[in-house]
Specification:
By secondary structure, the protein is mainly beta. It is built from 1 helix and 14 strands, in the order ββββββββαββββββ. The protein starts with about 30 loop residues before the first strand and ends in a 6-residue tail after the last strand.
Amino acid sequence: MTFRPACLIGLAALSWPVAPAVAVDISPHRALYTLNLASTRPASGVVGATGAMVYEWGETCDGWTVQQRFRLRLEYSEQDNVEVSSTLVTWESKDGLRYRFNERRLRNGDLDEEIKGEAKLDGADKGGSADFTKPETATLALPAGTLFPTAHTVLLIQRALAGDQFVSRKVFDGATVENAGQITAVIGPELKPGPGTGDEKLPKSPLLDRPSWRMRLAFFPADSRQEQPDYELGMRLLDNGVSQDMTLDYGDYVIRARLDDIEALPRPSC
């Protein structure tokens, strides 16, 4: 279970004409979210969930960095509780062609998995390769049109600014030793700055005084023809890259990430 706010066949090629890309001004920031159980199905056995996540989106002269730390405790009605946590560190070049990733996941304090590697694309809308060094050495050929996470988030904002309502692309994030998965996004109408339903306690910050859109992203695994996604991500994404709130829908239960605090990070002097 991994949160990546920075995201499904046929329409994925985006073969129809589109307007020139709109410039997007990403704001480097650090955000703190509280995690809790939003809803659950009785058959899931999940009766409670609590946790927290810290998400840092930084900027270097030639790329974007992400540091994400989260901890979630799941409570079950008829089995022992489970605590999962992870630490994710990534770097992505500003041209969207290079990507490095390293993630450690713990389950009840014990190492569950570590994934590390780097990926590159041969050019915009071209394929490339991903080289893993952990958990084992492996190389995957990435298909043409693959995006890395930051480039995908920027594309979502560009398409939202252009008034589009649907985006489907292949995205590689290194979360598993698998190829790029398909992500479909449904984009709602533009929202004015301010709290939404359940957001009345948002922190005060100029970072949040921006237009935004409700989006619903469905994540499908690589080379899959299944009709149902592995999970869905709902979020209110601002035009500067900030996620005002998020919900992770795993089918049997839904986790909500509520924004509690946010601060701007410095930009590099290049």
